[in-house]
Design goal:
Layout lengths: L16 H10 L6 H15 L10 E6 L1 H12 L4 E7 L17 E6 L3 H13 L4 E6 L11 H16 L3
Helix pairs in contact: 2-3
C-alpha cells in the first residue's frame, strides 16, 4: 500500500543472521534498543550520503521493539526523520528518548492487546511532538484478524503522506 501511494520503502533487518540465531535462543537482542537504534541511525546516515537519496524525506515504520528503536533513532536524527509509525510497538522501551522525538508520531495498537495499549497510552503522554494513538477495533497484537493489517497500512500511508510526502 505504501508503494502504491508512491512512497519509497526500504526494509531493514536490524539484526544480522547470526544475531537472529542467537536471539531465537535468548530473546535478548531484540530488546537491545540502543543496538537497534544505532543500526537505524547508521542506515539513515548511509541513505542520506548518496545524491539520489540524500534529499528524500524519511519516515520510520517500526513494529514491536523496532518501534522503540525507530523512536530512539529519530531522537538522534531529528533533522532527518519526518514521521514515525509504530505498529503494535513498545514505545516505552525508548525510555528518555521519547521526550526528544520531534517527528510526528502515530501509535497503532490492537484493541485486544491490553498490555501494549496501556504502554502506548503511557508513552503518548511522554511524547512532546505531534502525536496520535489509534486503537484498531477487534485486533490483537499481530493484527491477524481479517482487515486489521489493511487498516494499519491505510493509517500508515495516510500518516506518511501527511507528514513525509509534502
Amino acid at each position: 500500500m505504501l508503494n502504491e501511494a508512491k512512497l519509497a520503502t526500504l526494509l531493514i533487518d536490524l539484526l544480522t543472521l547470526h544475531e537472529e540465531v542467537v536471539d531465537a535462543r535468548t530473546a535478548q537482542l531484540r530488546f537491545d534498543i540502543d543496538l537497534l537504534a544505532e543500526r537505524l541511525v547508521d542506515a539513515t546516515d548511509w541513505l542520506t550520503q548518496f545524491p539520489d537519496t540524500k534529499l528524500l524525506r524519511i519516515g520510520y515504520f517500526g513494529a514491536s521493539t523496532g518501534a522503540a528503536a525507530a523512536l530512539a533513532a529519530a531522537a538522534v536524527r531529528p533533522d532527518a526523520v519526518r514521521a514515525i509509525v509504530s505498529r503494535g510497538g513498545r514505545p516505552d522501551l525508548a525510555g528518555a528518548a521519547l521526550t526528544r522525538v520531534q517527528a510526528p508520531t502515530l501509535l497503532i495498537v490492537g484493541e485486544h492487546d491490553d498490555q501494549v495499549v496501556q504502554l502506548n497510552r503511557q508513552a503518548l503522554t511522554q511524547l512532546r511532538c505531534e502525536k496520535r494513538l489509534v486503537i484498531v477495533p477487534g485486533a490483537t497484537h499481530l493484527f491477524e484478524e481479517p482487515g486489521a493489517l489493511d487498516e494499519v497500512a491505510r493509517l500508515a500511508r495516510d500518516w506518511f503522506q501527511r507528514h513525509v510526502d509534502v
